[in-house]
């Protein structure tokens, strides 16, 4: 077990000797931003935040911490929704920020790959790919802040999973610093490589509990030649599903995003986010943001979009719709979707359920889970939204108006358990894209118990026998 005592001054001196003064932050004022998560659910403490400038420096730091038995919390953009990147409260853990590992090492438009360091933001990686005529097909609401290392560590999903899969589907190679300070250089950019266990996939989604990702080779795809986006008002989630199946029937490969928003979630965005406006006549109970994209020129996406929407407007499946006429309009439609978390945060306390069910079951799931939560907490405001096209709904609950936020947050386990009971009925998952972090390890025995959890515990013990990598995250304590 890692040492629960604060790191000794001798360790901090040794770390300073590796990274210099600019690579080591100590003192409450300088470390505060690294000890609290985006949702402000956790306020940790740390004696130091280490900011290595290279993989070699990081390896040396990990070696020092391993020798001292000092636990490490790796941190990227600190945008975790489940407290996966903040230290605990006893001050024994050191935070390692990857922010200075921020180079794009290589981008090859023939191989269609880019080699990116962990501290590059997802947005910067997307822009670098676009500069060379390629697309990095991963997009999440926090992409301006989230860093590649964290995005891979949690196997982020986001808006384009319906077309391009999750982060893990885009990873060809990885460089990782292991818990004993060894550097594993697996930065291969091969499309085929059947050489034993697929180690890179072990680290993707392990949330920093097995090692620290320092760089990755990511797959790119051709940039779209046509993109069309539309906002569609619908009365029910069933109508949204109906619309989805119509686009699927025309050209499933063209659907790059199919996002659902509830009227309430949208109203929080319109109320709290400057510049957010609704380009539809009336606010509906649900709204869909659909995006179609293709790398083929003159593929006729606009005609397809108009045809599907015309028919859906005629038969009442869609109540109102608007098609983006410019890049600026497309961005303003996306703003309505991407600011959902911020809108909810400003409205009050919320309990998040990042769940997935089969796409066909999304409407039934929303109905049942809504009824369960309203019965549990009268006045609770149900805000389901998210990636309907891949079955991942953020079934978030906003505190009742005028309720005490602390009282509401104290109900989080009861709420999450009630939602998860419904998720289970639909053979879904209790964590679709945010990971387990510090919030959900208690759910693991129930959902992944038996051979699956045992195997995870054995892998953890084999790779990190000292238990120094991101303790308390993902896996529950062993009985
Ligand atoms: C998003 O898709 O905007 C985030 O993953 C959602 C959340 O706040 O639950
Ligand atoms: Zn999401």
TrEMBL record:
Entry GO MF terms: catalytic activity; FAD binding
PANTHER family xref list: BLL6224 PROTEIN, D-2-HYDROXYGLUTARATE DEHYDROGENASE, MITOCHONDRIAL
Name under which the protein is recorded: Hydroxyacid dehydrogenase
Family: Belongs to the FAD-binding oxidoreductase/transferase type 4 family.
GO biological process: respiratory electron transport chain
Superkingdom as given in the UniProt entry: Bacteria
Needed co-factor(s): FAD
Keywords for this protein: FAD, Flavoprotein
Domain FAD-binding PCMH-type intervals: 42-223
Keyword hit for Lipid metabolism: no
Flavoprotein recorded as keyword: yes
Organism: Rhodopila globiformis
SUPFAM superfamilies reported for this sequence: FAD-binding/transporter-associated domain-like, FAD-linked oxidases, C-terminal domain
